[in-house]
Every structure is written in C-alpha cells, then in structure tokens.
Design goal:
five-stranded antiparallel beta sheet, binds beta-D-glucopyranose, 18 strands
Length: about 575
C-alpha cells in the first residue's frame, strides 16, 4: 500500500443495500421508513459493514418504487422527511457508517414539476426540451414517433392530451409511461442534477449509486431500432436497442459528475465521495471504460450475480476482473444479490437439470423452475466465501445475510412491480426479492418488521410464515447460522491484506493428477475455484464429489459448511485457509 496516498474508504468497503420500503417500519404502516433504518443501524454495525446504499427515497408516486422521482430534493413522506434523513445521517456517522443515495438521471416521474411544466408549456416550448417530446407519425400524428420498445413492455412512446382535450405530442419513456426520459443534451437538465448532487452531499451523503446510466444517450434523430425476434421477453428488448444503450452521452454524464464531485471535495477537505455506476453492459471492457480518474470511481461487475453453479464461470469472472484491474487500475464492485434479481439462495437452488447455462437478467427474475432451497443455501454460503476475499467494494442486499430465499409464490393480488402489468401478466417481476425483513419470530409485529408499534398494518408485501425461523433474532446466537457466517466473513475480510488483486490457483482435481495441473484452470469440468489474496487461500468445491485440500495452504480459518473429514472439502462448500490464528 502506498502510505502517502492511503486507499479511499470505499476501495474495499462492504456496502449494505437497503430497500427502504422493506427493511424496518418505525410507524406501523406496514411500509419501511428512515426512522426504522436508524433504529436498526446497530445491527448493521455489528454485521461489520462500512456503508449503506438507500434505494431511492425521494417523493414518488411509487409506480416503480421510487425510480419514478417526483422531487429530487426531498424525502418520500411514506419514508419520513428531511429531519428523519438528518437523524439517520447522525446515527450512521456515530457508528462510522457512510450513507450512499441512489440517483436516477435517465428519467423522473410524470408527477415531477419538470414534466408538469413541460406539458403545460406546450409543443415547441423550451420547457419541452427537458424531455423527448415529438409529434406522432401518420396524417393525424396517431402513430408513435419510432418503433422503440420500453424496458418493461409496450411502446416507449406515450401520447399526451392537449388542454382542449385533443391528442397532443408523444413523449419518450424507456421504462414505464410514468417515467419520462430526460434529455441529457439540454444544459438546464445537467445543471439541475449538479445541484441535486451537491444538495445531498451538503446533507451528509457520501456518494451515489447511479441508476441505469447506460441509457441516458439517444441517437440524434431517434431512428427506428432493428426489429427484435419474436418471443423476446419484454425485459430483454430495450437492451437490444443500439440507439439508447451505451452511447457517448454516458461518458459525458460521468465526466461532468466527477468534476462536480472533485470540486466539492476540494471545497470540503476531508470529504471522500464515491460515484458508482449501475453499468449493466454487453462486455467488461465497456463497463471498465467508465472507471477512471475523470469518470466513475467504481462500477458494478454483475457477473457473480449472473453466474450459475459452474466453477469455470466463477473462475472466469474473477480472472476477468483481475485482468481488467491490472490493465487500467479499474475498481469493480462485486455483488451476489440486488433488488432486481432473484435471491441467490433460490437462484442457486435450481435443480441442476434445469439450471440455465448462464443466467440472464430475465430468467433471474422470472424463472419458474423448481428450487431446492437447502441446496441453494449451501451454495449461497459458499458463494459468500468466494466473494468475500475479493479486492474491491462488495455490495450486500438486505436479508441475504439471513439467507432469505426468493418468495416465488406471492399471490397475484399482491404483485406491485410494473413488469407484471406491463408484460400483460406474463412476467411476475421483482417483488419476490423485496419482501419485508423478518427480525423476530413474532407474527403480530410483521416478524419484527413493524416492531415497537401497536397493531401494525399488514406489510406492503406478505411475508411467508416460514420466515419466522430465518428471523435475525433466531440466527444471532447460532454459530452455524447464515448471519454468523456473514459476520465471520466480514470480520476476517477486514483483517486481511489490502493487496489489490488475487492470484488464481491452478489446483489439480485429485492428488494423483498433478501432471495435468496446468490445464485445470481452463477445464470446464474442473469444479474447483481457488485463489489467493495475501496469505489467505480461498478454495470452493462446486462439484458433487469431495475434494482433497492441498496441505501447504495453512489451516481452515473459515468454512461455509461442515467439513467432517480432515483435509477433505465436501461438495458445495468453500473454505478460507491461512496461517493458524494466534
Ligand atoms: C433499477 C430498477 C429500476 C430501473 C428503472 C434499474 O436500474 O435498478 O429497479 O426499475 O432502473 O429506474
């Protein structure tokens, strides 16, 4: 480590993603809120995290649960107010936890004053330049301006109605019709966001997770997209549109925001801001191109979340991350779960016969294949050990430390994700990973979610009764629980070297075939993932047969599951090996 330039706080940080609506409900209305989070921060400090990321908590009609922002400079009343935000920051600061906000640049809400003003100002006005308003095609303008499809289904264009009731122009909305796309070629839009960033930094935020930045640019003239093959899932269509995905405006946005952040840091010595992009993309090279001294500080690398349970994919992801880092010093953030994906306990519990060869965003959230949660839990535990020693920020999603599975059988009446309706009720969407957290086994308080309130309302999504066994208070004193495993991994990670990258290890598949060792890394049948960081060796067995551990890597300091025979690593299990503890 360079002692004159210590690593910034976020470079190896553990960030806990809070779906605000689902973490803790302080006022008993069945909806999570900021005071609920403040009351539970000690739990997160005990878990061993460095920062929290709040999913959008701005005023919003909640058509896409906060990703439809009506006012970027306030707090959603269901979640509290600015005073509650200040209380959260104060308690987080006391516990040495930083707070990241979620910023949504591509679109706002139709309820945002920007959009209302633009509608009122009429066709051709400067205020309409904030968005993509266009006349329709056809003699009477009744056809959409082009053939673009929205991410969550249907046309990306929506027709407005003039004040006199006649049909008006169309506006572009790449997600739902409630989320009009902002025009990033218009300077007032950029200026408005500069101020929004500074507003939250002034209130104590340590940085931003940037939502869906890959779609902020649009090809001038808005030409038609190439036709998509029949049967493509609605949630896959938009990513195939080259006129909205990874255009040069993405770099422009990052360059601008980085310069705003750098200027803010210069004016406020001691502040250390982080900008992290949700840069889903077709290749790691594209994603990595956004991380440099003029753009993002770091970005998500989603491959571990997209992997199935084949070791060669995990080796490849770690290797790719390493190569990228070596090439450009790029910081990549790792994650196994988030609010858009099926939880990994379920994802990895798909019976092998049905396991897709690689997960896509879609089958992560829409898979109806049978799931063995016990198998999935074993694999999720092993995944945490694989991920836990990697250099770079690590993002956890609320409830993964309890081993919560996806709720696959939410009743249809309860489904709220816009994907459900927009797909014509063919894709259930993401509600199953957003069900409120079980804190205790007490059903009368929504399993502790609405603790401390009398006769709370039902939670906004129903919690399965079996979750009483997974509640935080049931796990906290059990040394074999998922919660204990997460605490142990995070404590050991904190103590480990800050060495920036790892060496992949090429272990023979059995003690007898050492002569083939050099082929093992590339061999798709090799079920072992092994790497070394500092003096910690991580070995995971993703296969069905036991594996003989090497004898020269030290003792087992952490194990994801029971290892009954000395020197043998059972199937679906991972260990950290290292020098004996004092
Ligand atoms: C967020 C989603 C959201 C979408 C639209 C994504 O990147 O993670 O939850 O629905 O952006 O804002």
């Amino acid at each position: 480590m360079n002692t004159t330039h210590p690593l910034p706080w976020w470079s190896n940080a553990v960030v806990y993603q809070l779906y605000v609506r689902s973490f803790a409900d302080a006022n008993g209305d069945g909806i999570g809120d900021l005071d609920g989070i403040t009351n539970r921060l000690q739990y997160l400090a005990d878990l061993g995290i460095d920062a929290i990321w709040l999913n959008p908590c701005y005023p919003s009609p909640q058509k896409d649960h906060g990703y439809d922002v009506a006012d970027y400079l306030n707090i959603e009343p269901e979640y509290g107010d600015l005073a509650a935000y200040d209380r959260l920051i104060a308690e987080a600061t006391r516990l040495n936890i930083r707070v990241l906000m979620d910023i949504v640049p591509n679109h706002c809400s139709t309820e945002n004053d920007w959009f209302k003003r633009a509608l009122a100002a009429g066709a051709g006005s400067e205020l309409r330049e904030w968005f993509y308003f266009r006349d329709g095609k056809g003699d009477d303008g009744s056809l959409p301006p082009n053939n673009w499809q929205a991410w969550f289904g249907g046309s990306a264009w929506n027709r407005t109605t003039n004040p006199d009731g006649t049909p008006g122009q169309w506006y572009l909305a790449m997600f739902t019709p409630d989320q009009p796309d902002l025009n990033w070629n218009h300077e007032p839009v950029r200026l408005a966001f500069d101020n929004i960033l500074r507003f939250w930094w002034d209130r104590g935020a340590a940085g931003f997770r940037i939502d869906a930045p890959a779609v902020v640019g649009k090809t001038p003239g808005l030409p038609d997209a190439p036709p998509v093959p029949e049967g493509t899932l609605v949630t896959d269509i938009a990513v195939q549109n080259p006129h909205v995905y990874h255009r040069p405006e993405v770099h422009e946005l990052f360059v601008r925001w980085r310069s705003v952040a750098d200027a803010y840091e210069a004016e406020h010595p001691g502040r250390d801001i982080v900008l992290i992009g949700e840069t889903f993309g077709p290749s790691l090279d594209i994603i990595a191109s956004y991380v440099n001294e003029r753009e993002l500080h770091t970005t998500f690398f989603f491959t571990l979340l997209l992997n199935n349970w084949e070791a060669h994919r995990w080796r490849q992801a770690i290797q790719d991350g390493g190569n990228t880092l070596a090439k450009g010093g790029t910081s990549l953030a790792w994650t196994l779960n988030n609010h858009d994906a099926q939880r990994n306990v379920s994802r990895l519990g798909h019976s092998d016969a049905h396991l897709p060869s690689s997960f896509t965003f879609n089958n992560l959230i829409n898979s109806h294949e049978p799931v063995d949660v016990e198998v999935g839990t074993r694999r999720a535990r092993a995944s945490m050990l694989i991920q836990g020693a990697l250099p770079g920020p690590l993002f956890l999603y609320f409830g993964e430390e309890l081993g919560l599975p996806e709720v696959l059988d939410l009743p249809e009446w309860a489904l709220q994700d816009p994907i459900w309706e927009r797909s014509g009720r063919t894709e259930r969407g993401r509600d199953g990973c957003r069900v409120p957290m079980p804190w205790t086994s007490d059903a009368s308080t929504n399993y502790g979610f609405s603790d401390g309130t009398d006769a709370p309302q039902q939670p906004w999504l129903p919690q399965p009764a079996q979750w009483s066994e997974l509640a935080a208070d049931q796990q906290t004193n059990d040394p074999n629980s998922m919660l204990s495993l997460y605490r142990d991994v995070l404590a050991a990670r904190r103590a480990m070297s800050t060495q920036p990258w790892v060496d992949m290890l090429d272990l023979p598949q059995s003690p007898d075939d050492t002569d083939q060792a050099t082929d093992n890394q590339a061999n798709e049948d090799n079920p072992i993932v092994a790497y070394k960081r500092g003096n910690t060796t991580v070995i995971a067995n993703l296969g069905s047969e036991p594996f003989v551990l090497p004898t020269d890597c030290g003792e087992i300091i952490l194990a994801s599951g029971h290892c009954p025979e000395p020197g043998i690593l059972p199937s679906d299990t991972a260990v950290w090996l290292g020098p004996a503890r004092q």
